[in-house]
Amino acid sequence: MSAMHEPLPLLQQALAAHQAGQLEVAQALYWQLLEMNPSDPDALHFLGLLTCQKGEAAEGIALMRRSIAGHASAIYYNNLGNALREHGELGQAIGSYRQAVALQANYPEAHNNLGNALREARQPREAMESCAQALALRPDYAQAHNNLGNALKDLGELEASAQAYRRALACLPGYADAHHNLGNVLVQLGQPDGAIEHYRCAAALNPASAAMHNSLGLALIASGKFSAAIETLQRAIELDPKDANCRNSLGTALHETGQVDAAAVQFEQAIALAADFAEAHSNLANILRNQEKFGEAIEACQKALALQPSLVQAYNTLGNAYVGMSDYDSAIQSYREAAGLEPDNADVHHNLAIVMLKSGRLQEALDHARIALIRKDGVALVHANLGDILRKLGDIQGAIRSYRHAIERDPDVDLMHTSLLFCLASEGSLTSQAYLADARYFGERVARRARPMAHIQAHTECRPLRIGFVSGDLRRHPVGIFLESVLAHINPARATLHAYVTVTNEDALTVRLKPRFSAWHSLVGLADEAAAQKIREDRMDILVDLSGHTSSNRLGVFAWRPAPVQVSWLGFFASTGLDAMDYILGDAHVLPEDEASHFVEKPWRLPDSYLCFTAPDSAIEVGALPAQGNGYVTFGCFGKLSKVTDEVIGVWSRVLHAVPESKLLLKAFELSTEHARRKTEERFAVHGIGVSRLLLEAGSPRDEYLAAYQRADIMLSPFPYPGGTTTAEGLWMGVPVLALKGERFVTHICESVLQAAGQGSWIAANHDEYVVKATRAASGAERDALVSLRAGLREQVLSSALCDAPRFARNLEEAFHGMWSQYVARSTALAS
Questions:
Q1: How far apart (Å, rounded) are the C-alpha atoms in residues 165 and 773?
Q2: Band of the pLDDT at 3, cuts 50, 70, 90?
Q3: How far apart are the C-alpha atoms of 35 and 20, rounded to whole Å?
């Protein structure tokens, strides 16, 4: 504060008291001066300033206007601008600052204040020009450098903004606001570590500021330093317990560290403090969605969006919640709202791709996956998602490339290895040794993260073996279907069974399976080490992997070796790649002696088949041979469209050409989309097969699906990835299945089923024999044989080794006891 004239002694006393914070004394002296001269501009002006300081803005501003009426001073106009700005009269403040610089062009403080006000009025370019004027007059003006940085930031000139803040700090190293502002812009520039350094300085310089601690906490979260973030944000809340922003930030940090309940409390408290805090509602919705409280999550998202319709995060979470309720149309609409607000948001496009994939809209899924990839090429999960879509579309080579890109970017995510290995195992052109190299690479990586657990000395007493089954498929799934009848016949005097489930999904088959186990444990949410420790504490003798490289596997748990003997069976068709997996359980057809080198595990062969089919509990009849009524033969294939490779289409087209007027009935869930149907028709058209020869149908509920076999005369198993469950179901429905002999586990699956069912004559040695066998079986001369086979095939299958559950259970018990005996022998030899 300064006066325009040499102050009188009384005014000097008033100003000194004012500057010392003795407001009552100063006020009395100002009034004394005004009693002497009611129009004294200095007394009016500084009394106005003092009155504003005491919270009586309207009265203070009126006094300041009276002072200017008596004496138009640049300083007076500048001070009036400050008062008006603080009182929320931004437009009038800007006018007052303009009057100040008009009266005194070389007034740097007024130029700086004008710049600050213009920025608040969202005129960043004009603000930048005013700050530049201030700096031209005073190059070491730290506050003007800071305000220039603010204006440049608003203009999107982030690098220039950072330089302006740095110049402010060069002029005034202890400038807390400049440190804080530089931290903000470094966050936007993707430099969280640099931001942390400046936020720490800001918080140290202004230790009572909850806002500065909050900014530091958010930067620590962005850098993945969650423990430090939690500590910092707890300090922020101690400074200001009613700061909703700090509580929201603390909730975010707690959520990142898995402290979900504590995070929810913070979000709820943030909402209690600020009911209109949209982001807190959205964050709480995310927790509710993860807790599968989808209805509550949707309600919380809707509250967030009512408060802030442009909140992309809320639309994204809303979409996730709808996905949890399998309401894919609503999910797509939510994600599209988010994408409309932020077209370059890779996460939103990624989620759109996933939900499009779930809803069978494969081409749209592919489009969004590619957008996500362009926006976020370095993110492994985006590449993995693109791989999933390409696999669904039947582009196995494209899927393999995408999965490899994902692994290059993040080799420690097991799911990406699993997706790659599943594709490689079912891909025709890859050698078994090439697959094994990738499987071993996966096995070595998980082994590095694990410390194999020690076990007590092998017991030899006569007691049931304790056998654990690890699976996410104890439900309506091939694993559940092939287990159900077997478990009912396991002798509890020889084996007690424990289930270790890896998902929460259950269905009617799960309900039937549960009583077959002595205990039912969930591994959901447990890290590999914790899950392994639980299994070890349960003292399993043998641990069985029922997944291999399929979804929901927990192969990382097996790397810790929680059980003395570990075996992979039923759910996969190649090596897991884990040295900790002792055996792979199969039969002589899927594990021939000359293919033992395909596995890290030691092959163990069951005497008949490695599969035991549980016949459907359906009353659907076999039905008459369709060709008798149709006048033509209908070949069929039910299953995943991805199994129908170009090689398969080439051979099947030869069959259709060789059998005039025959048709091919393809039934697959992927065929629910027009794109998939059109693409399939185009692929056959290349081989001269017209649309009229193809019957393309989407998947359907189980009874409808089984009934569809009544419309097929002969099933054609694809290759190199044939049908297992579909083969057994086709035979049960009286339809013979033609298979191609393979050269490794996956390609032998159909052979194993056919041999166990007594249908080995339907296995072709090569493509030519496949065409010949199909043509001969479809000929008129063989029509009576097909009729006879259809009439008796179900009974033949039910009485075969394929469905002999008691016999299979004895074989399985013998296998487990044989494995245990070998373990005891090894342990005894080592002990001696």
A1: 81
A2: very low
A3: 23
Same domain, 705 and 741: yes
Question: How is residue 498 written in tokens?
Answer: 């424990």
- The answer as to whether 594 is a domain residue is yes
701 alpha carbon, distance to own chain's centre: 28
Q: How many domains does the chain have?
A: 3
- Extract the tokens encoding 731: 């035979």
Residue 149: C-alpha distances to residues 142, 200, 271, 675 (Å): 11, 20, 33, 52
- Only one residue has tokens 């659907």, namely 620
Give per-residue pLDDT as tens, 334-360: 999 999 998 988 888 888 988 888 887
Q: What integer is the mean pLDDT of 231-256? A: 95
Q: Is the pLDDT of residue 294 over 50?
A: yes
CA nearest neighbour of 232 among 202, 200, 257, 261: 200
**pLDDT on residue 2:** 44
Between CA 519 and CA 525 the distance in angstroms is: 19
Q: Give me the percent of the chain exceeding a pLDDT of 70.
A: 98
Full residue range of the structural domain in which residue 434 is found:
371-449
Output the pTM of the full model: 0.66
Q: Is the peptide bond before 720 cis (omega within 30 degrees of 0)?
A: yes
Average pLDDT (613-631) is 93
105: left (phi over 0), alpha (psi -120 to 50) or beta: alpha
Q: In what order do the strands lie in the sheet with 714-716?
A: 694-697, 663-667, 634-638, 714-716, 737-740, 763-764
> Which range, 161-175, 312-326, 724-738, has the best average confidence (pLDDT)?
724-738
Q: Which of 223, 244, 246, 252 is nearest to 233 (CA)?
A: 246
Q: Which of 556, 595, 563 is nearest to 582 (CA)?
A: 563
Judged by phi (left if over 0) then psi (alpha if -120 to 50, else beta), residue 468 lies in: beta
Taking each helix axis from N to C end, the angle separating 362-375 and 674-685, rounded to the nearest 10 degrees, works out to 100
Whether 6 maps to a domain, the answer reads: no
Residue 382, domain CATH:
1.25.40.10
